[in-house]
Specification:
The protein is of the alpha+beta class. The protein is 41% helix and 26% strand. The two termini are 52 Å apart.
Length: 537
């Protein structure tokens, strides 16, 4: 019995190069002192000098920021976009990015209404019945301003400001775009693959660049653009310590492994999915994330443990969940195996959310990607099988442009040749052109004279070029190779006992065949589902 191999070991034979990099990051941009009600009251009393703590006094501050944003767009001739429901912001950003000249700039400013957390003033009653204002957290749908920008070092990114005090913001960057820009500056030749690399001259140098992206560079990006864009807080506010800080809302850590052939990657990943549908079990999730998972009544690890296979178009992806963290694996653009760990709450790993924890969080994400590949198992290497099949069935092409026809699996002549090889294997002195002609005519139910010596020579060359036979030195006789024997045994059995028999079962209308019955039941279930969906619509 063949023991399964881990995916990491199988990949060593097929990966051209690999890159670990911080991928998409979504960060909270906030003023720490203004995230709770007492801090807001302190700002109103001390910084604004207002005797009564009420959000009403913040209205002029909000209006001033909104006016500044509109004025900035007008003065700098920046396009303005009002997003509508269902509109993909990234698609609009890509249109502006394609049309721009590549220089550092604000591509456009977008406005959208979104639900967010904010502060409101509520009435409270004292014991004597008198009323007093009280500030507390609430939710509301307010305008959000999106600044889509192009940075010299980070490439495309956006920063989103809430239009209401305390003007919390979100910063979204992509580490792979940063790495592409740094590689270009360093003179490292590469071919981009969306937010990855399809080819690179020096993978080791590129990996060293990816490792340089840290909290300091991300913080510097924010400070740089806060100095250029309309700032919600005045200079006196910032001097008093009301300055933006960064925390990690979501961070993706990716491992991109470029495979040797585009088509084999899809076949490989589909086999990975089939052999690893149990990855979501708590014991395996614990191995992937190196965490203890308890399922008892007293010590119970929260979260749903399951494996999901999600299909987007024709591209499937494998998802494994641990608390708020998810690993996603998919075949990227038909050329690479992409493994991404997305951490949505650093507290899942006993780390704070401040950006200063990025290094420690990255180590966890990269290690999870590697452990997933070690935990995953494969019953066989599907890439080797695919290559072996093509080696027999596809034409052999030479450097001078000539080619030798392949042995197509469904071609009767090719199947006849494979059956004959099984008979010739028993002849210790090999076989000749004449021997092949006699048996080939018999298998094809043709007169022996109808197979000419030239036609047999053509077939002998096909078999020899595909490694199924070898010519005995200094003779005109041939022997079946070990490869020829094993390939001929398998391909003839697969053709006669599986493919032909299975198709016969599907098309036999006179007998009850299990395969045909199962096909009819599956089709009936699809028809019923389609009819139900149409009725609901």
């Amino acid at each position: 019995m063949t023991l399964p191999r881990c995916v990491a070991d199988v990949l060593t034979d097929h990966v051209v190069f690999e890159v670990e990099c911080i991928d998409r990051m979504y960060l909270n941009v906030y003023v720490p002192q203004l995230q709770y009600d007492t801090g807001l009251v302190h700002y109103i009393h001390r910084q604004m000098g207002k005797p009564v703590a009420s959000t009403v006094v913040l209205a002029p501050v909000t209006k001033a920021f909104v006016t500044a944003v509109h004025g900035y767009a007008r003065d700098h001739h920046i396009p303005w976009v009002d997003f509508v429901k269902g509109q993909r912001k990234d698609d609009i950003a890509q249109q502006f990015l394609t049309a721009c000249d590549g220089s550092e700039q604000v591509l456009f400013i977008g406005r959208a209404q979104e639900k967010t957390t904010l502060f409101r003033t509520h009435k409270r009653h004292r014991a004597d019945g008198s009323v007093y204002p009280w500030i507390s957290r609430d939710t509301g749908v307010v305008n959000q301003f999106y600044f889509y920008c192009l940075d010299e070092d980070f490439g495309p990114f956006f920063i989103k400001f809430c239009s209401y005090f305390p003007f919390n913001a979100k910063l979204c960057i992509n580490g792979n775009h940063w790495a592409q820009r740094q590689a270009a500056k360093s003179g490292i030749g590469f071919t981009p693959l969306d937010n990855a690399f399809a080819a690179v001259e020096d993978p080791a140098a590129l990996q060293a660049i990816c490792a340089e992206l840290d909290a300091g560079r991300i913080d510097a990006l924010l400070r740089k653009w806060l100095a250029r864009l309309p700032h919600p807080f005045s200079a006196s506010d910032r001097a008093a310590g009301y300055r933006y800080d960064l925390s990690i809302l979501q961070a993706e850590f990716s491992l991109t492994q470029m495979l040797d052939r585009p088509v084999t990657g899809r076949i490989f990943f589909e086999q990975v999915i089939r052999d690893n549908l149990d990855l979501g079990r708590p014991d395996r999730v614990g191995l992937i994330f190196d965490r203890s998972i308890y399922r008892g009544r007293k010590n119970h690890t929260p979260g749903t443990f399951a494996t999901r296979v999600v299909t987007d178009g024709v591209t499937p992806s494998l998802h494994v969940q641990y608390k708020n963290t998810q690993i996603k694996q998919y075949h990227k653009h038909g050329r690479a195996l992409r493994t991404e760990t997305t951490i949505n709450n650093s507290m899942d790993f006993d780390l704070g959310k401040r950006l200063t924890n990025l290094r420690a969080l990255a180590r966890i994400g990269y290690a999870a990607n590697r452990r997933l590949l070690r935990v995953q198992r494969l019953s066989h290497d599907p890439i080797i099988g695919t290559q072996a099949l093509h080696a027999v069935c596809d034409p052999v092409r030479h450097h001078d442009g000539t080619h030798v026809a392949g042995l197509r699996f469904t071609d009767p002549r090719a199947q006849a040749l494979l059956h004959i090889l099984l008979m010739f294997r028993l002849q210790p002195n090999g076989f000749t052109n004449r021997d092949l002609r006699a048996l080939l005519a018999e298998h094809l139910a043709r007169p022996s004279a109808s197979i000419t010596a030239g036609q047999a020579t053509y077939d002998l060359r096909r078999l020899r070029e595909h490694g199924l036979i070898a010519r005995l030195p200094h003779t005109h006789r041939y022997q079946v190779t070990d490869t020829g024997l094993t390939h001929a045994m398998f391909l003839t059995h697969a053709h006669d006992r599986f493919v032909r028999a299975g198709l016969a079962h599907l098309h036999d209308h006179h007998q009850h065949q299990p395969l045909r019955a199962a096909t009819r039941a599956y089709q009936a279930a699809l028809d019923a589902l389609a009819q139900k969906a149409a009725t609901a619509a």
